[in-house]
Write a structure and sequence with these properties.
- The protein has 196 residues and is mostly helical.
- It is built from three helices and two strands.
- A hairpin with a 2-residue loop joins β1 and β2.
- It is rod-shaped, with a radius of gyration of 36 Å.
């Protein structure tokens, strides 16, 4: 069985490596921060519609004469509604764009991870086929070819063809083992780079 427990990849394990909103992935963290920034900008644009209230205290003196003191209360009512509405609409669209960019980034990373896991499982199945079926058949072909050649029942050319078939099976298994190791390395790289 070709299992990589240090990568958390086990046969039959589905959706075990999903991204969360608290991902350590720097690209996703940047997209989340951008979304939070756009949300703050939208709140600022929304706040421009509300009236403002101010309270102040003053103490003033002229030429060494004390006495001008007071409290000032002010109420500001926004009058330019349409200009501020366009700013609010722009902030809302920017926030929505940032949210969609974050979701697209998350989907892209999940897709890369799922593809790497799928490829690893596919290659693991092929290696199981070689271990359980192809290699025993190759060994049987080799033993049969050796016995028949030494008994003189097949010619040298037929013997070489049998050896060539066995060699191809062994080379195919080695190629699949290499592909499996490369896929495992790709998965480990994805997990390390993206912080899974």
């Amino acid at each position: 069985l070709h299992v990589l427990p240090e990568l958390g990849v086990w046969p039959g394990r589905q959706n075990g490596l999903q991204l969360g909103t608290g991902s350590r992935n720097p690209a996703l963290r940047m997209l989340m921060a951008n979304e939070a920034l756009m949300a703050q900008q939208q709140k600022q644009a929304t706040a421009a519609f509300s009236p403002s209230i101010g309270l102040g205290y003053f103490n003033q003196s002229l030429e060494q004469v004390p006495g001008f003191q007071g409290v000032q209360l002010s109420v500001g009512i926004p009058l330019a509604y349409f200009g501020r509405q366009s700013n609010w609409q722009a902030a809302k669209l920017n926030r929505e764009t940032a949210r969609v960019a974050f979701e697209a980034g998350e989907l892209r990373l999940n897709y890369q991870l799922e593809q790497a896991v799928r490829e690893l499982h596919l290659l693991e199945g092929r290696l199981d086929y070689f271990d359980q079926t192809a290699m025993p058949r190759a060994e049987h072909i080799l033993q049969t070819a050796n016995r028949l050649f030494y008994l003189g029942e097949i010619e040298y050319f037929e013997y070489l063809q049998s050896l060539y078939a066995v060699l191809n099976i062994r080379l195919d298994k080695l190629q699949h083992e290499l592909n499996y190791q490369l896929a495992a390395n790709r998965l480990a790289e994805i997990k390390n780079i993206y912080g899974f």
